[in-house]
Amino acid sequence: MAAHRTGDVNAANGYKNQPSGYQLKELNDSQKQYIRSSIPILESSGVELTKLFYQKMLKNYPEVRPYFNKVHQKSLSQPRILAFALLNYARNIDNLTLLSELVDQIVTKHVGLQIKAEHYPIVGHCLLATMQEVLGRDIACPGFLEAWTIAYGNLAKILIDKEKSVYENQPWNGFAEFEVVKLIDESFDVKSVYFAPKNKEFKIAPAYPGQYITIAWKIPGLPHETLREYSLSKYPDIQNNMYRISVRRIKDGVVCNYVHEHLKKGDVVGVSPPVGKFTYRKFEGNQSLPVLCFAGGIGITPIISIVESALLDGRKVVFCYSNRNYVSRPFKNWLLQIKDQYKDQIKLKEFFSQEAYVHNEEVIDELMTRVLHRADIKELISADCDIYLLGPNNYMRFVKEELLKLGVQPNKIATEFFGPYSP
């Protein structure tokens, strides 16, 4: 573990030499009150605190830098997520069982990234140090810091134990070497990448439709590997021992621009096993129900195998797909193929938000040159159906809120999001 850095406070030093030895310790009433007293602070200044925490950690501990996306730091989406988690932890300090869903989300996220027990002391050390520096001695007094030290240790213990049980059941741990075997342009700004194990004897793991993998990229000029998560945009090709991901190019995106400009057949990357809970739900009692899918932009990637699975099960599918325009719409050939193969079993409704006119050859089933409206969602809801939703934050927030207003039960809406919806 890294040595002590100048400026780090003594209150958190104990974590640096505690790689996996956390023990559950019950908080007393006084300590719980210190945690509760953090609620208004986290509500008003949580994002500022977590932003400074990440700056401290990423500056002083280069070993954790591969796990974090600079774009997410700049947009504050990562600090918002951590602030959200800390706030909910404080709000539920008297009954942590209410956090079981949040804990499961964190575990899935950590396992996807291959976070290990030895990373937790760094986070705890920097978090407590930041609290003391930002809040000052009047608030972050010895009792306050002791309470949060115990609270963090308890949370770390819970997460480490749960993650360990998942790792023990994975087909491999860490990042196996995979080789790029094919690259396909899906639109002007989306490229599909096919990977196969470098070791021909190594067999890929099956995945549930909708799951994702994490790729460890070696970007020229960067001193460390860079990790990024990608939904599998096709059910794993077990016969040919391949995975496929699809990457949209965005401005200032280090990895996505590398993929579009420099990645080539034969390049080697690290790949972690498939994980994720945004998956096709198949159980006795729902096989006759129709499926309604909402996807915005590159959010289509996990939806592809979900749609295919539902169609193979004989279920009717309505697929509502939003893009900016026809040149930014990926997977046109796939959309044409499933429509041709399944005919009236699938209904495709597309929305192009920035297109005033569309050539007839671009219309596959039904296409509107406008954004998705509430009336569209209301029209699509059947008496009982399974719903899958993925896309940009604002898109997901809008669609989910409208579904709930229309009386759809939350457990009928499968989505993949961690933290607060934010721009």
TrEMBL record:
Keywords from the UniProt entry: Detoxification, Dioxygenase, FAD, Flavoprotein, Heme, Iron, Metal-binding, NAD, NADP, Oxidoreductase
Catalytic EC class: oxidoreductase
One GO term (biological process): cellular response to nitrosative stress
Location of the Globin domain: 26-164
GO molecular function: FAD binding; heme binding; metal ion binding; nitric oxide dioxygenase NAD(P)H activity; oxygen binding
Known EC number: 1.14.12.17
Entry-linked InterPro entries: Cbr1-like_FAD-bd_dom (IPR008333), FAD-bd_FR_type (IPR017927), FNR_nucleotide-bd (IPR039261), Globin (IPR000971), Globin-like_sf (IPR009050), Globin/Proto (IPR012292), OxRdtase_FAD/NAD-bd (IPR001433), Riboflavin_synthase-like_b-brl (IPR017938)
Domain of life: Eukaryota
FAD-binding FR-type domain boundaries: 173-281
Required cofactor(s): FAD; heme b
Listed Pfam families: FAD_binding_6, Globin, NAD_binding_1
Swiss-Prot/TrEMBL catalytic activity: 2 nitric oxide + NADPH + 2 O2 = 2 nitrate + NADP(+) + H(+); 2 nitric oxide + NADH + 2 O2 = 2 nitrate + NAD(+) + H(+)
Region (Disordered): 1-21
Protein family per UniProt: In the C-terminal section; belongs to the flavoprotein pyridine nucleotide cytochrome reductase family.
Protein name: nitric oxide dioxygenase
Lineage, highest ranks first: Eukaryota, Fungi, Dikarya, Ascomycota, Taphrinomycotina
Gene (name only): yhb1
